[in-house]
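Input set for joint prediction.
Command: fold jointly, output tokens.
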Amino acid sequence: MKKCEEIENNLPFYLDNSLPDAEKQAVEKHLNSCARCTKALVELSNTQSVVSNLAEVEPPPWFKQKIMSMVREEAERKSFVQKWFYPLKIKIPVQIFATVFVAVLAVYIYRAGEEQIKAVMPSSAPAPVMEISKNQLPVQSREAPETFAINVKKEKIAAGKDKNDEKAVMYDVSSGVATPKAEELKKARLQENVRSGELDAAKSVKENIIPEAKADRYASAPAAKPKELSAGELRKEEKGNILETVRKSKKTKVAQSVISKTAVALHVADVDGAAEKVEKLLAKYGSKNIVRQMTEDKAVLTAELKIQNMKDLMMQLKAIGRTEEIILPAGDSDGNIVLVIEILNN
Amino acid sequence: MLWVSNIIDSKKVTDKDDDLKYVILCQKGNADAFEVLVERHQKKMLNIAFRMMGDYDEACDVAQEAFLAAYKSIKKFKAEAKFSTWLYRIVINYSKNRLKQIGGRKRREGVSLDDSGEVKTEGVLNQSADCDNPGKSLEMREREVQVQKCIASLDEDYREVLILRDIQGFSYEEIRDILKIPDGTVKSRLSRARNVLKDCLIKVIGDL
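tokens >
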């Protein structure tokens, strides 16, 4: 006979009528002789009837509506996502189009940016050039007086020519290089340019009438050429002394080409007296490297002067005699300029 | 061969599934079709949740969440079993998860574990009360509260089997599909659950 515990474990299945026949008969046999297990079976049956008769709860009236509102909200959200990302027949073309669009836009922006940089670069370039000119000013001023004496006569001749030539001369004067006649100069320049193959240099020579800012622009590299050209021309005319000047000018070619310069002609009765006065004035306005060159009928003073003092100096010069400005200083109020004052006899 | 017969059985099951056409509509994006499914299964869903949770409000929340979860993942339903089976599994799992959350919260808040078996069925069970006989209805209500307490005292694994078999009346096969446990486990758990419940009721109510 099986133990009561084993029978009790099988009683739920006996009630369910889910026991195999053999076990079912064993349970029935046991129940006939065991009051305890029979009682347990009755209790178990009652338990099941109690549980199965438990009242069902009803859903609240809003139950379905609430579920459906949540479901519809979810469906809308889902359909929005599906609309944009599914199905693939829409998704793939959209993605391809977007990729192409982004690529084209990127190229366009890159090119536009490049053009802007190109447009901006020239205007921003002079800044470092000016710095170079400032740094190199003392070198130029030291070299300039040595060559200036040679230039005086040539300069005078050139001054009588047309305006372009005159300015070309002045450019060369200020750079401390001897200046030939205008026509010869042009020819020489052309020959030299053809030889060197540097068109930029020729351009810079032709345009040497432009103000300082523009001259500075060419100064970084090709500006050295005009000086070489001028020196070459001098070799033909003045040889000996000029060779030395040319050598020196080669050393300082970059510095000379970038410095702001101003030439003033002062007509006075007494050249020597006026030269003294002007020299004092230059000293008074803080000029550096004052050099006086005396010739038969005129005196040439070269000095390095702050641009801001230029105006006052000009006023003082007018008191001494009749002034004639040949080249005006650049608009930049900062920095130094090389001032050449030509004192002529009335 | 057994595997093939299982597939055939599941085919037979799904062929008989009245919910399937609405499920397919839902899968195609027709949200309104889900309303029919809610209508059909809301009561059973709520009652399973209620017997699992022992709290009507919690049961409502859990059943709603289970329906929403079912809708969200309805495309994953492969019709290998009846839709209702799949749906009831969701509500059972959600109920168990919620019970864990509540248990954890109670432990954190320092609530006595002796109160955990207490159920909030007042007012809810009145729906089934007989208004003509207030004395009897009160007695019934008291008895039901005691019974629910005993159900709640069962381990979750035993409780779910008992609820599905003895309260909701599912077959062993359906319980096996809902809970995804073998037949033998269903039977042994049910046997254990019934005996424990019987002892609990004798203790609480007296002679059955």
